[in-house]
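Appendix B. One record, verbatim.
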Amino acid sequence: QVQLVESGGDSVQPGGSLKLSCTTSMSILSFVSMGWYRQAPGKQRELVAQMLSGGSTNYADSVKGRFTISRDVAKRTVYLQLNSLKPEDTAIYYCNAKRITDYWGQGTQVTVSS
């Protein structure tokens, strides 16, 4: 059974940084892709960043240049480095893994507020 466990969410001031982690119960290379989505109150869940199994990455336009997705295959962990955080980045961030179906973590809260 696939399990995704996120950590790293917190409350920070605008301009601050956070690093989110997502550890899987099996090799991250067994997935077509892994990534991060977010959902703000009253809004739909949206893709933030994605890394394909070959290593290529995709980012939402709103986070390009500020967020970086990376992985450690040996640790079965995917990371999301969030820099220059803005209040509009406030959301629950979900780790996602794709095969034929989607797998989701439980979510971790990121709050950006002064």
